[in-house]
Q: What sequence folds into this?
């Protein structure tokens, strides 16, 4: 049985949004991006009633083994569901997120990351040529709520002028809008000193969450989703930092064209690379085999060519 739209319907007691997919229907879906069964941001852990509804819905569907697919929010929901089910439902999670923000073994990516990096690198490569041709700067904002892996991967692959990650700011080195503005302005001025009036800065969207509470007060439309995460699409972070940088440059009588560019959904739903095609199939097989053999409460991974359950 395939559950559509994540936890959206089952957490409300609605068991009508399910399907029985045939081999013919799914045998080639690994060629295409996106999600064949769709996704949703609904959070069953937000309310004890939702969590209980989810369990009851699954039992009504005669489901006693559940494989979840997604990032850190889905993994957490899966963990809470397994605990609440108290042995009635076995749960195994498959790590899928372009943010690459799950705690897998060193050097092992979540599936989707390499495809997103590939698409992102192609776009940034074109922007770098355009920056040189049109004599301008691009501020490229990449997805990556709590981890800068995607920004770093794209930035390193393309040799972008500058890449800034939230991981660089912790403890007393707390990020503010002013500090980020100084970093970008300093890079632009340094480039000018070498006779280069262009560049591309890759910025992880998670820089917003790395900022101090005081800085966040200056950001308009700070909405949050069902998991309590900042809705970055509503913040328009690129335009905000662009205006601040241009205002600071004006104090030095420097006028530079800056274009803010968001890289997000065009990377997330791209057709997968051969790496992710193979990797996702392997993870799916491992998850199914593990749970059918009695495995429970684990996230599947592959290390050194071997299946590894992570508890």
A:
């Amino acid at each position: 049985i395939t559950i559509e739209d994540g936890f959206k319907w089952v957490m409300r007691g609605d068991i009508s949004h399910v399907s029985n997919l045939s081999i013919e229907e799914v045998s080639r879906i690994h060629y295409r991006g996106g999600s064949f069964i769709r996704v949703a941001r609904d959070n069953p852990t937000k309310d004890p009633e939702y969590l209980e509804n989810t369990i009851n819905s699954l039992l009504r569907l005669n489901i006693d083994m559940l494989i979840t697919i997604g990032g850190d929010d889905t993994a957490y929901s899966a963990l809470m569901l397994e605990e609440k089910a108290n042995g009635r439902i076995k749960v195994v999670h498959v790590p899928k997120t372009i943010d690459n923000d799950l705690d897998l073994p060193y050097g092992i990516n979540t599936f989707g990351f390499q495809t997103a990096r590939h698409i992102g690198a192609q776009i940034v490569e074109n922007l770098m040529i355009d920056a040189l041709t049109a004599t301008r700067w691009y501020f490229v904002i990449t997805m990556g709520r709590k981890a800068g892996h995607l920004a770093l991967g794209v930035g390193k692959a393309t040799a972008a002028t500058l890449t800034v990650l939230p991981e660089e700011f912790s403890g007393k080195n707390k990020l503010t809008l002013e500090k980020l503005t100084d970093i970008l302005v300093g890079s632009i001025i340094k480039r000018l000193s070498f006779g280069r009036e262009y560049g591309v800065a890759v910025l992880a969207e998670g820089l917003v969450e790395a900022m101090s509470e005081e800085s966040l007060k200056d950001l308009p439309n700070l909405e949050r989703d069902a998991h309590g995460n900042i809705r970055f699409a509503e913040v328009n972070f690129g335009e905000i930092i662009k205006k601040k940088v241009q205002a600071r440059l004006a104090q030095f009588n420097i006028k530079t064209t800056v274009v803010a560019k968001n890289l997000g959904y065009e990377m997330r739903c791209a057709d997968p690379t051969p790496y992710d095609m193979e990797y996702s199939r392997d993870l799916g097989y491992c998850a199914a085999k593990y749970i059918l053999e009695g495995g429970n409460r684990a996230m599947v991974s592959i290390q050194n060519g071997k299946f590894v359950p992570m508890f």
Observations:
- The chain has eleven helices and ten strands.
